User: Fold this.
Amino acid sequence: MSSTISKCFWRGFRDGLPFLLVVGPFSVLFGVVAAEAGLNVIEALSFSVVVIAGAAQFTAVQLLQDDAPTVIIILSALAINLRMAMYSATLTPHLGKAPLWQRAFVAYFLVDQSFALSAAKYEKERGWTTAQKIAYFFGTVTPICPMWYVLTVVGALIGNAIPPEYALDFALPITFLAMIAPMLRSLPHLAAAAVAMTASLVFSGLPLNLGLLVAGVLGMMTGARVELWTTAKQKEALA
Amino acid sequence: MTGMIDRTELWIVILALGLGSFGLRFVFLGLVGDKAMPDWVLRHLRYTAVSVLPALVAPLVVWPGATEGEIDPPRLIAALVAVAVGLGTGRTLAAILCGFAALYGMFWLIG
Assistant:
């Protein structure tokens, strides 16, 4: 029994390993952007350890620089992490029977990569016990999350050594666009992104950076609405 | 240039984000258990990332801080390249690399 559990752990480890290629540079970049914004190494590392969510961390640092009100910064960054609640809901049927302390650790390490790998694996390996599923999950995070911390420090250390000609101010937009574009694989996703982008430009004059929240909500409503239309159309076509 | 970040505010943001992010990750795993969520909630949650992230980026692309809000062709083109490569290949890392290549290529061309 214990041998199959360690096998599940190592399978997760192997599956998680390639994601270092994405997470690694992203983590260095966060360290660099944090240093550019004036954060020291301890502050940058604290961000990565306490929050452990790249997109939200980048957003918070950007808005801190923009002098946005604290509440708006927190709400905007948490809005980006709302997808974590969806991940949590998706994994709950599989891991809900694990002891509470294990579920707490799963929650802390619930990132895009560990979620994507585990959700796909659990669908395939329906016979796995809760213990095997837990082992696989922690296997996936073992190569990824420690490097997330370490490379943030590396980025923060080299950050101030990079001259302005390298236009690192634009690292954040490029990285975010590179993260978003692969997600735009369906009409509702495309529509949500297009409406949110347009709305954020139109409402950029709103005080307190509220334009971001308004645009986000409009984008989500658009996505949900278009999804309803497209599924209704598909049903019609089948009928 | 942007102003100095206030230290108290920074730590409030770090701690609040940490607690809030953990809360979002724990809410179903820890508290809800096996109960199902309403469909309309899930339907909206599916589009949070693709709404909030583009909304955040759009003004930074069109009115970059580094050029004091003037439209900047190299940055605009780099952004378009990153989106095109990301859409075409589905690979984040490839899109980042091509975006930077386009940015530096344009700087080099313009001088």
Notes: The helical segments of chain B are 7-32, 39-45, 48-62, 73-89, 92-110. The mean pLDDT of chain B is 86.
